[in-house]
Specification:
The chain is of the alpha+beta class. It folds into two domains: 3-52 and 98-164, Alpha-Beta Plaits; 54-93, no CATH class. 53% of the residues lie in helices and 23% in strands. The chain has a five-stranded antiparallel sheet, sandwiched between helices. The longest helix has 19 residues, at 54-72.
Length: 165
């Protein structure tokens, strides 16, 4: 089962930096994410969601498999094209993770110009993740973690926030 964690930041740049750090941690296999979205409340009050594209990932995977199948049947370019198109279609139809309505509602609670990083964490190594993510500060605003784990994360984030002042 995955845990939902939403951390508020003063601006979208900080939230994106924290997201990039989580992406690096995922590459290092220190954390496994099911979904990651930056929610921005713009100066005009509108809420904007910045999410990774499942269409691009599907197209890349489809092109790879299509190219391999095309090589087997001696038509690699056709296989690449068909694979990319079917992969993109599959990626577009796949919308798993955090509900968009929930994220919009969460975004409306942010201060104008503020942002939140919303993640669905399937698995993590907290002693490797928390020190690297706490450098961005932030405040836990929504979580499905148990009380002790949420308090530990919030304290680590607050400690960075106090050091930045």
């Amino acid at each position: 089962m995955s845990n939902l964690i939403a951390v508020a930041y003063p601006d979208v740049e900080t939230a994106r930096s924290a997201a990039a750090e989580l992406g690096q941690l995922a590459k290092e296999k220190s954390i496994v994410l099911d979904d990651m979205v930056v929610v921005e409340r713009q100066a005009d009050g509108k809420v904007k969601l910045h999410q990774g594209s499942t269409v691009a990932a599907g197209a890349a995977g489809g092109a790879l498999w299509g190219g391999l199948i095309g090589l087997i049947f001696l038509v690699p370019l056709l296989g690449l094209a068909v694979g990319a198109a079917s992969g993109a279609a599959a990626g577009a139809l796949t919308d798993v993770g955090v509900d968009d309505k929930f994220m919009k509602t969460l975004g409306e609670k942010l201060q104008e110009g503020g942002a939140a990083l919303v993640v669905l964490v399937r698995q993590s190594t907290p002693d490797k993740v928390i020190p690297r993510i706490s450098q961005y500060g932030g405040e836990v605003i929504q979580s499905s973690l148990d009380n002790e784990a949420e308090a530990q994360l919030d304290a680590a984030l607050a400690q960075r926030g106090a050091a930045a002042v």
